[in-house]
TrEMBL record:
The chain crosses the membrane at residues 25-41, 56-77, 97-120, 126-150, 162-180, 206-234. This is Uncharacterized protein. It comes from Halorientalis persicus. Keywords: Membrane, Transmembrane, Transmembrane helix. The lineage of its organism: Archaea, Methanobacteriati, Methanobacteriota, Stenosarchaea group, Halobacteria.
Length: 248
């Protein structure tokens, strides 16, 4: 009999999987809903593929639904790690005899993810679409994150931050425009149906083009905001209601 049994306390590495599932039933139900949506799309679609636009849309929904199910499964394990204390403790808990249901739960989920990954890998065009969309948002995020980092070192006054935004955005826009015109203008961009992992250069080129183009667009938007913001702040200062007079 160990010390935990002598004191009547449960082992901190023991996980009651049934109780955990009952407590997190809402999360598991949502995960099941997305998995059911993926199955429904695969059953109702005339044909899953990427050769035509309609096939691509069905395949996109299929991959997105299964992707959401996998994401929610990751959240389930995040909750498990929080329940037991840390990811390291959760790892060690899998090797305890009392947690045999947890070990089988992880094993079966791993097999499920492997099979889903194989299905998703069949639709390369969908994965390329997700990659290009990520590059689109990443470009804007880079500009906004850089502006935020610069703003941390500036006084909280409009006359310091607006010029900084303007000049940084102008430089970013000109630099990205130069890259596009000098290095990417003559590059042939293929459709996502023609992209393949066996020839990654078209994929890299498309991602680079969209990333730089989104940086240029975000920089242009920031320039516009800086120009429009100047008279607005000036009017507020004249009226004596500027938000920058009493920064928090």
């Amino acid at each position: 009999m160990n010390g935990s049994e002598d004191t009547g306390e449960s082992d901190p590495l023991d996980i009651d999987l049934a109780e955990f599932i009952q407590d997190r039933s809402a999360l598991l139900v949502v995960m099941g809903v997305f998995a059911a949506i993926a199955v429904y799309i695969s059953d109702t679609a005339p044909e899953l593929g990427t050769n035509t636009d309609s096939q691509l849309m069905y395949a996109t929904g299929f991959v997105a639904a299964f992707g959401m199910a996998i994401l929610l499964l990751c959240l389930v394990y995040k909750e498990l790690a929080a329940e037991i204390g840390s990811w390291n403790r959760l790892h060690h808990a899998h090797y305890r005899l009392n947690n045999l249901p947890l070990a089988f739960f992880t094993l079966l989920n791993t097999m499920l993810i492997l099979s889903i990954s194989y299905l998703m890998a069949r639709y390369e065009a969908v994965l390329f679409m997700l990659l290009l969309i990520a590059a689109l948002f990443a470009g804007g995020g880079i500009v906004l994150r850089a502006l935020y980092a610069i703003g941390r070192y500036l006084p909280q006054t409009a006359w310091a931050r607006i010029p900084a935004m303007f000049f940084f955005s102008v430089v970013s826009g000109l630099a990205s425009h130069y890259i596009i015109t000098e290095y990417l203008s003559g590059v042939k961009i293929v459709t996502i149906q023609k992209m393949s992992f066996t020839d990654p250069m078209p994929v890299v080129t498309a991602v680079a083009y969209i990333l730089v183009a989104s940086i240029r667009s975000a920089a242009a938007l920031c320039v516009f905001v800086a120009i429009i913001g100047t008279p607005i702040v000036l009017i507020d200062k004249i009226r004596g209601k500027s938000l920058y007079d009493n920064p928090k």
